Amino acid sequence: MNEKYYSYVHFFYIMYLFKKNNYIMISISKEAKNKLFSLMKKEGLSQDNSFVRIGVKDGGCSGMSYELTFDDKKKEIDQLFNDETMKILIDKNSLPYLEDIILDYSDGLNGKGFYFKNPKAKHTCGCGKSFSL
């Protein structure tokens, strides 16, 4: 097996969401997933009863910005993805903007926080929190 492929697969949790006979891929790094679990625990949320919500809204310095929150209720417009340990909610309006994104987390000297890497973005602001298509 190709060593580069092997390390990529082990670095990211790859999630597939079913939509109109196609799969939408969202990747979450181990660091991001561990930080999300840590924050859930700190806020007293249960992994069994709470969701991580990923979305897109108008705003930010590039036109659209990412949302990353916790929620305890699934809405009718939400697409639910379950992996072995985490429940992800994405509203159906945000799905086209989030296809093939990578959610990462860094706590290094150059910045601390969650970062979205979006291959569809034509422009991304310096902080990585907003984009335009």
- Beta-strand percent range: over 45%
CATH topology: Hypothetical Protein Aq_1857, Chain: A
Shape: globular
**Which class in CATH terms?**
Mainly Beta
Number of strands: 10
Order of helices and strands: HEEHEEEEHEEEE
Largest sheet: 6 strands, mixed
Number of domains: 1
CATH homologous superfamily assignment: HesB-like domain
Mean pLDDT: 76
CA-to-CA gap between the ends?
35 Å
* Structure annotation, total helices: 3
Decide which structural class fits the backbone.
alpha+beta
How much helix is in the residues?
10-25%
TL;DR?
The chain has helices spanning 3-11, 30-42, 95-98, and strands spanning 12-19, 22-29, 51-58, 64-71, 78-82, 87-91, 102-108, 111-117, 123-124, 130-132. The chain has 133 residues and is an alpha+beta fold.
